[in-house]
Design brief:
The complex is a heterodimer of chains A (180) and B (165). Chain A has 180 residues and is mainly alpha-helical. Chain A contains 8 helices and no strands. Chain B has a domain at 3-50. The longest helix of chain B is centred in the last third of the chain and has 28 residues, at 99-126. The chains are: A mainly alpha (180), B mainly alpha (165). The interface between A and B is large, with 53 and 40 residues.
């Protein structure tokens, strides 16, 4: 491994990648593959498509490395790349959720009920417009702040607030019978 | 604070995105307003619903390896070009320039190239082209297209060749 192994922050790794260090890129991929995968999978709902998206995201990062300037944290930049790919993907495909959910739940009845709730929530999310869906994913599952979501979507924090409000309202409307 | 104004900021309040002073104002309103408290509760319900979303499976173990394989092939194909360190450094100042300054730089570079081309053309015209071969041979008194110029070694060979049986 090259000098990438000695570097600590992702921003420093990106600088090394820009200088041609593929070992640094390898480290960057291993460090961030989980979050890229999570967002892509939650968005497209299919392992094969999520893998394609994740690979494309990292290759975009590689190609953009020489132009990358660490004015914002690398993580924010990475979410921006994944978000754009997800939204592009949504314009071309409808999400198809496969049934490959992890199966480590208890009793059969409970599992059926839980599965049904998951399916309903998944479909409700799937039914939202792409930008509302990705805003909710970034907020609720990735824990991003409004500023980071705004960067990822290329919009303002006020617009993010509106997207989240509409998305939540729509979810509540669709899943009214699941609320206590 | 009015309910309409509170409603506009309720999502940001629920997400902890408001400045402390604004958050305090909303909290004070919520204490007195059951309708806004109900709206806030519905936002929490939506968040609770999302907690039912299925957890994604872990990424496939080969993901990183596949990304790296594609990265290496891009590097080999040359579709990912590393910046040349010396050139990149010498041009990096350009990225920090304002757009008009970049235009001036680009125009200057274009003019320099044009001037170079013009000077090259003028210089090549100034050099006299070599005389055509026949003309130059005539000037030297040589008949290039004779089989064997008379008096030369080749003429002797030609004579010997003719007397052979």
């Amino acid at each position: 491994m090259g000098r990438g192994s000695d570097l600590t922050t992702s921003e420093e790794l990106m600088a090394a990648v820009a200088a041609g260090d593929l070992a640094a890129f390898d480290q960057l991929v291993r460090r961030h593959e989980r979050e890229v995968w999570r967002v892509a999978y939650r968005y497209v709902g299919d392992a094969s498509e999520a893998e394609d998206l994740a690979q494309s995201a990292f290759l975009r990062v590689l190609r953009a490395a020489p132009r990358y300037r660490s004015t914002a944290p690398f993580r924010t930049y990475l979410y921006q790349v994944v978000t754009r790919l997800c939204l592009d993907h949504a314009r071309k495909h409808r999400p198809v959720y496969s049934d490959e959910l992890p199966d480590h739940r208890p009793a059969a009845d409970e599992r059926l009920v839980a599965r049904e709730r998951e399916r309903r929530v998944r479909e409700a999310l799937d039914g939202l417009p792409g930008n509302q869906r990705i805003a909710l994913i970034l907020r609720h599952f990735e824990g991003l702040g409004y500023g980071e979501i705004a960067s990822a979507l290329g919009t303002s924090t006020k617009a993010v607030e509106r997207l989240l409000a509409r998305g939540r309202e729509a979810l509540r409307g669709t899943l009214r019978d699941l609320t206590p | 604070m009015r309910c309409t104004r509170v409603c506009r900021s309720l999502n940001a309040y629920a997400d902890g995105e408001l400045k402390p002073s604004a958050a305090r104002q909303i909290a004070a309103h919520l204490e007195q307003c059951p309708a806004c408290r109900a709206r806030l509760a519905s936002l929490h319900e939506a968040a609770a619903l999302l907690a039912n979303a299925p957890e994604p499976p872990p990424p496939p173990p080969w993901l990183g390896a596949r990304v790296m394989a594609r990265a290496r092939s891009e590097v080999l194909r040359g579709s990912w070009t590393r910046p040349l360190p010396g050139l990149a450094r010498s041009l990096s100042w350009l990225a920090g320039q304002a757009v008009p300054m970049r235009l001036v730089t680009a125009l200057t570079a274009a003019l320099a190239v044009l001037a170079g081309v013009a000077m090259g053309t003028a210089a090549s015209r100034a050099v006299r082209p070599p005389a055509p071969m026949a003309q130059s041979a005539a000037a030297e008194g040589i008949e290039w297209f004779d089989v064997a110029p008379p008096g030369g070694l080749a003429a002797s060979y030609a004579v010997v060749d003719e007397v052979k049986p």
